[in-house]
Amino acid sequence: MATKIILDCDPGHDDAVAILLALAAPQIELLGLTVVGGNVPLQLTVDNTLRVLLLAGREDVPVFAGCPRPMVREMITAEHVHGESGLDTASGELLAMPQSVAQQTHAVNYLIDTIRESDPNTITLVATGPLTNVAAAFVMAPDIIERLQQLIIMGGAFHEPGNISPAAEFNVYVDPHAARAVFEAGVPIVVFGLDITHQMLITPARLSAIRHHGGRCGKVTADFLDFFNQYDTSKYGWDGAPLHDPCTIAWLIDPDIFQGRDMAVNVDTADGPNLGRTVADWYVVTDEKPNAKVITNGDSDKFFDLIVDHLAAL
Questions:
Q1: φ, ψ at 63 (rounded to 5°)
Q2: Which of 1, 63, 96, 246 could share a disulfide with 18, CB 3.0–4.6 Å?
Q3: In this predicted model, what pLDDT tens digit does every residue of 175-185 receive, in sequence order?
């Protein structure tokens, strides 16, 4: 039986690949896409979500616009990584904009209603952007927390340094108060932080495989990932950018790609240099109960093979 998921995202190049992967996987039933402001402002993340669905020929999947800004802080975006559109391409040709539009229902209301109306423990929520929508839903309807099967998050940095501040990963840093509320909610969490995603680099050979063996969608995906690569290769001297968000979907398709262990995770919300830092009790030096499975290692070759194969199937 396919795993029913709702994907909460902020496309973003890597979110776009996560959407395509979810659409291509027969093991996954994508119920809907809830969208949050993050990599770029909300209207652009919504537009990019609709563009990706058109690319995949899946405009039947409903899209719901959510929170445009964090709970407490001012909005921070990442055009320096994703370009002005949030989904810029190396060729300069943006993905086509469809005639479809987002649903009238707010993303938070959709999350609450859908989880409440489904049988308990039958929906997995996947979050690849700031956790504002998720935290708002948990605060407004705490009864949905125990109804979720699990929550899979791309966010945080544990042994790795941050990528938006010395201490913090972007998604958590954008809305650390939301992240803290979610990690304290009691929902079963699997978290993919920079420790694992920095192992998944879009090397030239992997980009070429996506372009030449990923079918129609692979050619377009390679074009926007070629742009995505430019920031990280220039700033860090890496062979390619880390492909963060699709790790969450790949884990649902083939969890044997990854390894991790249960840990207690806290989010720092105090103003100062550690704002947004995710602190994991890596070596069990406290009495805190584990609240998340932290993914620590993965097979990057199998991960990219899975992506190529699924893009080719779209």
A1: -120, 135
A2: 246
A3: 999 999 999 99
Q: How far apart are CA 268 and CA 47, in angstroms?
A: 32
The CATH classification number of 3-313 equals 3.90.245.10
- Residue 160 exposed, middle or buried by CB count within 10 Å (0-12, 13-18, 19+): middle
Query: CB of 294 within 8 A of CB of 191?
Result: yes
Res. 1: pLDDT tops 90: no
CA distances from 78 to 45, 62, 171, 274, 289 (A): 12, 25, 10, 19, 34
* 66, two tokens: 């959510």
Q: Where in the sequence numbering do the catalytic residues fall?
A: 244
What is the chain's mean pLDDT, rounded? 97
Categorise residue 86: left if φ over 0, alpha if ψ from -120 to 50, beta otherwise. left
pLDDT exceeds cutoff 90 at 202: yes
Helices (H) and strands (E) in the chain, counts: 12, 10
- Total residues found in the chain within this entry: 314
CB 247 within 8 A of CB 298: yes
Average pLDDT over residues 59-69: 98
Q: Which pLDDT value is given to residue 56?
A: 98
Domain-wise residue ranges, the chain: 3-313
| Average pLDDT for 37-62 | 98
pLDDT at 171: 98
Strand-pairing partners, residue 153, are: 127, 191
Amino acid at residue number 31: L
DSSP 95: P
Query: Do the Cβ atoms of 214 and 222 come closer than 8 Å?
Result: yes
- Determine the residue type at 183: F
Task: Output phi, psi for 158, to 5 deg.
Answer: -115, -80
